Each structure stands twice: as C-alpha cells, then as structure tokens.
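The following record pairs a protein chain with its ligand, adenosine-5'-diphosphate.
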Amino acid sequence: MKVAFLTSECFPYVKTGGLGDVAGALPKALYQSGCEVKVFLPLYGGIKVQDHGIKRIDEFSNISVHLAGKDLNFSVFHTTLPGAEVEVYFIDCPYYYHRNLPYTNDSDEDERFLLFQNASLMTLQRLKWAPDVIHCNDWQTGLIPVYLKTNYAWDRLFGESRSLLSIHNIGYQGRFPESTVAKSGLDRNLYLNAGPLEFHSTFSFLKSGIMYADKISTVSPTYAREIQTEEYGAGMDGVLRSRSNDLIGILNGIDIDLWNPAKDKFIKSQYTAETLEMKEENKKNLLERVNIEYAENQPVLGIVSRLAGQKGINLLQPIINHIMSLPVRFVVLGSGEEQYEQFLSAAESSFEGRFCAYLGYNNELSHLITAGADIFLMPSRYEPCGLNQMYSLRYGTVPVVRKTGGLADTVMDYHEYYEKGNGFSFNEYSSAALLSTIQRAVDIYYQKIYGAGYNAAEC
Ligand code: ADP
C-alpha cells in the first residue's frame, strides 16, 4: 500500500508535542509492515538541513503557485527517515517558514498552511506518485480531503486515493475569518449558508477535513468517544457525531528504538525489567543534573509537559505545599503559558534544593526524567492519547494520571489487595483527587521499602 503522510511536525526534524513523535514513528512502522510511505512537511527555518542530509531536488525548484492573491514560489527538499526507507519531502518557502517557531499567531498563519497543503499535492503530481491513502494530521492538513474532492478532483492521479484525517487534539481547530475562503481557492458556496467549511462564522480547516475525509481517526478509543460529547468535543461534537460511522480511535504506539531503557543513549545506565535496580543510578544522575541533592530511598516525582491549560498544571497550585511536605523530590520540565511558568519558578524558589522547574524544551532532559523519576505525573483535564505515560511505563516509572482519553486506555489503577495495575489514576478533575492519588503512590513506594502500614504523610 502507498501512503502519503502529511504533517506539520515530524521527529527528528521538528517537534513541539506528540504529533512530532507519531509522525516520526508511524511512517517507520508502516514501512516495516510493507507499506511504501512518503512524508511531507514544511521546511521550517529551525530545521538543521545539513545534520539530517536534507538536499534540494533540482527538478523541483522554484515552482510557481498563485495563492492568497500572491504569486509565490516553493522548492522541494528531500531526505530519508533515520532507520527506514521512508522518503521525507520538505516544502521550502522561506517567506512563510523562516520564523522563530513552527506555529505562529501571525496574521498569515492560514496562508502558511494553505501553501503547505497545495504544495504537497503539487509535489505528488510532479512525482507522478498515486497514494492509496493520503494520511492528514490535524487542522494544518485538514483541507487536503476537501481539495481532493474539489480543486484537484480533475486529476486522475488521485482517482483511487482515499483520505484519512487523524485528530491529535480537538482543541486546535484552525479557525480563520471568512476572507480565508477566497485565499484557499475553494468555492465560496462551500462556506456560505452554514456550508461544510463554516464553523460558527469562521472557516475551520479541521471541521472542513472532518466533513470531507473518507475516514477519520483519533489517537485513542476513549478519546474517540469523548470528543463526541459536549464536555470534550470543544464544539465539534455534533460534527463528529454526524461522521461517527467513519470515526475510529486507534491508540498511538511509541518508537522503541528511541524510547527504550535498554538502549537509550541519553541516560547514564541502560537497564531492562530484569535490572531495574539500575534506575537508581539514573535517579542520581538526574538529580545531579538539576542541582537537587540525592536522598536515599526518597521518590522523585517527574513531569515533562507542554504547559497548556489542558495539562492540569493548575491542579498542582493549591496542593504544592502539601506535596512538598511529603518526603519527595520533584523535577518538572516544560514550557508554555506564562502563568504556569511563573508558578513553577516560584515553587522552585520556595522548595530550593528539592524542586526543580526547568522551563524550556530539552529532549535529553526528557529522557533523563523518564528514566530517573520514580513517579510520573499527568493530571490532564483532557489527553487525546498521551505518550509520556507510555514512555514511563516502558522505563519502569510509575504514572499517576487522570482517567481521561488515552490515559484511561493505558494506565490501570493499582489495586492494593489484588496487586494488579500499572500505575495510579483518579477520575475527578480536582486538586484533592490528585493529592490523594499522589499520596497513595508515595505510600506504596515507601511500603515496598519499609513494609505494609508505612504512611509517608506521617513520617
Ligand atoms: P502533547 O502532544 O499534548 O504535547 P504528548 O504526551 O502526546 O502530549 O506528547 C508530548 C511529547 O512532547 C513527548 O514526547 C514529550 O516528551 C515531549 N515534550 C513535551 N514538552 C517537552 C519539553 N519541554 N522538553 C522536551 N520534550 C517535551
């Protein structure tokens, strides 16, 4: 089967969150199961072209396209994904992509991804390569299913192609003003009179994709159910229910070449389930790295997260004193909204030497935390799939999660009596529920060392 995989991020070239991981891992897994896969993504200014052997394709240089009332040019660069014969094509247009970050709030954000989508289809035409499946991901590629059935429907190359739209987070909907319709080159009638492109008086690339894709997937079975409800649908629940026969939840996988404690090149001591005691060396190394003094037999709590409202960081605020009154250390790696960054910095000052807030993006440190922490926290308000709890499980680091989306599908709450479960979870989105679950995890950590009956809160 031939699969074209269109994405706005892909590890190891560019990653801001889980989509980057999946876009690096899934094409590789498809290739290993016999598919021919080509990945398409924008050539952002931050991508290190030389490090990844990315080269311009001479025949695909300075291709003209008229879009958004502008005469534009793009070129196509190419490399292959590490460890697999997956071709990766980069759409180069410095005018749009040489900016500080992959996603912006600039007024031409719509144009940046209109160009990407049209240029990707035009590149497929020039390659004369007819995909069986065009796999679109999130709003940045949401118009591809529309284009295939309208502006590009004349091209027999795509005659047998079917589109799949994967929703990695329903909270990001690519909503633009009505004027974007003209820029897209799509028929205005598709927008007018509550047409398929229209969503609450805006042009939503995601809604358009949901209406036109042949199939829709999302990244866990629970999230597939949740997004069809008012509580979790972010306003798209009705649209999704109208396509429920074509919507499926498939749990993300993880790349065990990259996330594997037996061969992780970032961590101090590699280990397996049989040599779990080696985790202690990684804990010491992590704490040394973040200037926290190691304390024998004290558990380390860890977080690696985008600092966005969705992630439940606000739940920590009222209980941070209580958590830090327990015999624990705490390491947080994250970046994002200022309110959460400020709270974490303040906590670092208050609990100097026991709490570290590393504000920024750091891939290496994310591996050190995954291996060195004992307990990994993900108190998300919603979580489409979540990868960090799966990485933690792979590294013998016990996840504490809120039971939502993919967290509910992967973490089974530990039952003391039956000694079953692989982590700890709670239902209610509240600080109290999070605190009691952390306490439970910490108590059980200590009981494994000092025997039943030990209560960390009282020590
Ligand atoms: P989301 O896609 O909502 O951000 P996921 O759990 O699906 O959440 O994926 C997050 C990915 O991004 C993980 O690979 C995680 O390790 C990584 N990540 C998030 N924040 C950081 C950071 N500050 N530094 C390094 N990696 C990060």
